[in-house]
Sequence to fold (400 residues):
Amino acid sequence: MKNGVYKLKGKVMNYAWGGTSFLPGLLHISNPEQKPFAEYWMGAYRLAAAELVTPEGDLSLDSLIREHPEQFLSAQALSRFGELPYLFKVQDVKDILSIQVHPNKKEAEEGFDREEAAGVPINAPHRNYKDRNHKPEVMAALSEFWLLHGFKAQAAIEQTLEDVPEFNILLSLFRKEGLKALYRFVMEMDQVDVNAMLNSLIKRELRKKNDGELTREMPGWWVAKLFHGKNEIGNIDRAIFSIYFFNIVKINPGQGIFQGPGIPHAYMEGQCIELMANSDNVLRAGLTPKHIDVPELMKHTVFESTIPNVMNGEPVLPGETIYPCPVADFGLARIELAAGGGYENRATSLEILVVTEGGILINNSLVLKTGEAAAVLAGEDYHIRASGHCVLFKAFVPAG
Fold:
């Protein structure tokens, strides 16, 4: 590889929960069929690897890393991870994603080895562990963004059980045996009992939202959104309980949040940048047609109150703020420059840059406009100049 900086073409993922206009607009793609554009992947995940634009044509980032591992990753990252350890995304969340938990590294290794020994095919629908890696995540909002993140304070959960008539019957269990027993009970409840408990609640929330009595800070707003326009309620997803038991978090543009192992969470609405470890290990609690394994979910969930840590980012270089993440796999930075402003750095690993506002010039040769991305190879010195006000995000592997 003769150059150190290349334009990067990611892969669009058309999941049903995605919006129809944000990503097509960002990526300058027409969408006359109004397909859902959920995610834009910029990484080396083999099933959807990004491509470098080179004089020899568009080449798979995954293949190039395998052919030139140290030149792309750095000797340090190659020795520690053996691959690009992160997956970088832009997301547009129109509908609530599945409520989920991720295992830690040791749990992922043990779970993967256990399913391998049991002969569970890697692509089996009921397989929990697709690899031996953990899957911590950090996101930074591009718009007003809403998500569920961890359990509410014990007192707040008790107040919820008192305020929601359908939940009153759960109060004694919670007071006697605590949060884990409460969550296990609702997750293992027979479907007929779930329907009986939640049917009237959903109808009431729909009525209240229609009358303008709910806001996004309230669980009922999201429950009503889930069932809006449906003629029949039918079997009710037990994940509805989680919406009442978890923190509802609002994140403003430029702010971020880290989600580590064991913290139950779900994205609900908005656009964001997401950076995660290179893994597909997800244990789901609901709002999904995919496999749900309640015993495995319970084993890895942190049953403690969580105070969401919404980050504004820490300034480092001029124009650059970093969102601190307690993992070695990845780092995320936001760079904002005024017209004529500049940024200089040396890539300590493979860095991926994506422009979300404005346009930039890298090393006086590569132009990136809104929605375009670039890969900077390890060890490359590079400088950026802004043609006007611009915002870009950088994914990297932290040094040291």
Q: What stands out?
A: The mean pLDDT is 95. The domain at 5-74+81-148+250-298 is CATH 2.60.120.10 (Jelly Rolls).
